[in-house]
Design the sequence.
DNA sequence: CAAATCATGTAATGTGTTACATGATTCG
DNA sequence: CGAATCATGTAACACATTACATGATTTG
């Protein structure tokens, strides 16, 4: 369950509440979990039981109390260990590709409409990504300023990989559409 | 549950048993389900209840009986309709990227080892893909010979997208490694 | 005044993986 | 003779999403 380590990674920056984490997950496309409560709040309970985080309840008059979680030395040690494990090869889940396998069932016009709609969707998504990385660089998020030059470099490379992946898909689909046999 | 439509896509080629489908899913990286029994056999039961496939039990003396599923007109109509729906944007799930976000916790040597191990893994995976697409083109699988020029074109494009995606990742990681700040 | 945000969480359901179970046959 | 393949399926668990529930505050 690597969502726990993603959470520890954030907490290694700064203490955060479940609600803060929820927003961070929801904002970022790279952290592919949907940013739903259930997973995050349950993970925090478990991390607490495992002594990898501590919980401090900040009572605020008028507003609901915030439960702020702080990473422990144990948590940091576990995070470090996880960071050294070889991750699985990147997974690509493309619904479009699966549809294309059987798409010969469609009339030429239908297929072209499908591809056009998908290309639009892709372009919107790509724009969203660009906006997001612009916002990140402007430093709006809780964790945003790189602590070392190496960290700055790594973050830039992560963004590069992400955006170029979708640019490649855009280029691919444009080329596919122009060369499509009409029958 | 789009695994049902992936199954219908296969059955639109030729009738198949659960076991056949299991192997087809397990072989193909693009069909990202793991090819486990549970999902496939359950999906077939449901498809049968929904009158999208028919079931014929072929009793073979000595061997266990095969339950062969055939797509119905209803199933084909549903498949056609699904094919026209705009799929979601391709999802990329990269554990490496998440690790890199927090990787500044690692010593330079540790980080480089991690990247080297991952690059090896990627290269192996890429070779596996090439072999697989070679086998597919040689026509070893149950469904393999394109029925029309357009289908041939679509299949080639699907393979292209898949392999170039991983080639891009390989190029990216090589470049990342060579430019990594040592501190 | 309605909608969004803050902040917590639970319930129900859906999706996906691993392991278990059976029993015959074929291949090295 | 042990391992793999053929062929079916169940059970247990892990992971993920949507919807529900509450209640105060801020913003348009």
Sequence:
């Amino acid at each position: 369950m690597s969502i726990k380590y993603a959470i520890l990674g954030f907490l290694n920056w700064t203490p955060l509440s479940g609600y803060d984490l929820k927003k961070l997950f929801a904002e970022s496309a790279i952290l592919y979990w949907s940013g739903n409560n259930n997973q995050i709040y349950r993970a925090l309970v478990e991390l607490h039981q495992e002594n990898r985080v501590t919980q401090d309840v900040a009572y605020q008059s008028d507003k609901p109390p915030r439960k702020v979680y702080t990473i422990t030395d144990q948590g940091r040690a576990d995070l470090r260990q996880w960071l050294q494990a070889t991750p699985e090869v990147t997974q690509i889940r493309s619904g479009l590709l699966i549809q294309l396998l059987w798409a010969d069932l469609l009339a030429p016009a239908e297929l072209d409409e499908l591809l056009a709609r998908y290309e639009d969707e892709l372009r919107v998504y790509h724009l969203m990504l660009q906006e997001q990385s612009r916002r990140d660089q402007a430093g709006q998020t809780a964790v945003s300023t790189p602590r070392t030059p190496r960290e700055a470099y790594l973050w830039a490379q992560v963004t590069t990989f992400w955006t170029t992946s979708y640019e490649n898909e855009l280029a691919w689909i444009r080329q596919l559409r122009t060369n499509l046999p009409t029958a």
Q: What stands out?
A: The two ends of chain A are 47 Å apart (CA to CA).
